[in-house]
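Known limitations

Files may contain more than one protein. Parsers should not assume a single record per file. Below, a two-record file is shown to illustrate correct handling: read the sequence, read the token line, then continue until end of file.
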Amino acid sequence: MLQVRSQLLATCKQFARSLTKRSAHMERKVKVNDLEINIVESGKGDKSVLLMPGALGSAWTDFKPQIEQLPKLLPNYTVIAWDPPGYGKSIPPKRQWGLDFFHNDASCALDLMKALNRPKFSIIGWSDGGITGLIAAGRYIDNIEKLIIWGAGAYLVPEEVEAFKNIRDVSKWSARMREPMEKVYGVDRFAELWGEWVDAATAFYTKRNGDFCKGEVEQIKAPTFILHGKKDPMIAAEHIPYLRERIKGVRYHEFPEGKHNIHLRYAEEFNKLVADFLLQK
């Protein structure tokens, strides 16, 4: 009898741990216009923050430490990470490119948050997600409460175009960088999709003089926090002073040894900085 009770207690504890783990976040698809957008939600606060991933990125590939840790630091927030249209589990549709793909993502992000009945929200945007965040904050002034970005600029310079071309061949990437994306898209489709992204990004340089969102940057009113890895090889150093000069009252923090993925490499410190900024009145 004692053994049965012990086994029953162990089973109950295991179930409780499993339930707690599952309730820590919820992944689902949300109907946004004619799209099915995949999101991961964690936390239960009334305020909202949207995590915007980088190129080809998704909620889990780009923001696992934030999904798991930020709700503890931000008890009054619901943290939402999305897979942009054509990325991750937000497929179909096939990813659409052109010179408006950043702007289309910004518009879709706003429609997503409206569909969730969270029309006022903050943005945490990395790399491409940072560009999308700049556009959203400049275009939808009444909706964006705070903006946090890193690894992003408002335009392209020639050396960045060359850097993109140099990393076009994903077979030359390290396995650590390549394999997470291959698990999401498959080996062949990832290589194809990355080539499409390189072509789409460099088209801004040849067709728009490199301009991603210079006009939107000038319109930003939301309190903004720029974080930067001093050794980031993906963006030119000039982007930081450019943004700091044009966004009023911007807060800035630098990781001296940081590269492009400071939110992953220094997750605990990064998350604390982000949480402090969001909680600041």
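...continuing to the second record:
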Amino acid sequence: MGEEHFVETEKMKDVQEKLEELSKAHFVLVHGISGGGWCWYKIKSLMEISGYKVTCLDLKGAGIHPADPTTLISFDDYNEPLIDFLSSLPENEQVILVGHSAGGLSVTDATHRFPKKVRLAVYIAATMLRNGFVTEQDVKDGAPDLSEFGEPIDVYDMWFGLGLEQPPTSAVIKTSLQRKIIYQMSPLEDSTLAAMLLRPGPIQALKSARFKEGEGAEEVLRIYIRTAYDRVVNPEQQDAMIKKWPPQNVYTLESDHSPFFSAPFLLFGLLIKAAASLGCSE
């Protein structure tokens, strides 16, 4: 009886140690185009209450970052805040990178550059392309196609930082269409907040995203979280990217493009489950 009690106690200690180690995991959350670190406010609250460390970055020209997104035409320039952040981490520190929508490009770029600093890469309704936009098929799979909602001029407000004779450098979905396209299952107060905070996204910079595959990048564990009712990166596009570059695990949320608003508790649970199931507590 005493020996059995000792074994059970040791098992409980082992579980407790693993849970404590997992709670030390550092999640770095990366927003999509036009968004900012603010979009993660529900997830950040849930994680921090549960003891996790969370960083919500603003990429250049997004959120409260002072740069003018209309002037950005280079993806490296746009993604500089994430790269600088990872560069500043101690050599032995690893993070769990989470990218939403176009934030998936930022996550992939980071895994090529800093594979030893990324323990897990999580893509949420995100563009997951091994080398970025290299081929026409990459664009078809990874770039939003909103043609069902009208011509680009009817769907987007656009800015022409290089002149009217050149393609637009930044754009944002018109306020009147944002709820219908991005937040159709989200609480009204969240889509209202988003309408007040969204900024033009540097579309030329994103189109230029191409990555040279870094040594060790393929060893970074990846998770994809599908969004079943997504009108921005539709399920067919998500499935095409998953098939082309299979991650270790795929989960599905019954949500719109913005599960951090429409399904925050389920998304939080999946992020913790993904981290635990792939050994981030070891």
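Parsers that stop after the first record will miss the second one. For reference, the second record is described as follows. The CA atoms of residues 86 and 248 lie 23 Å apart.
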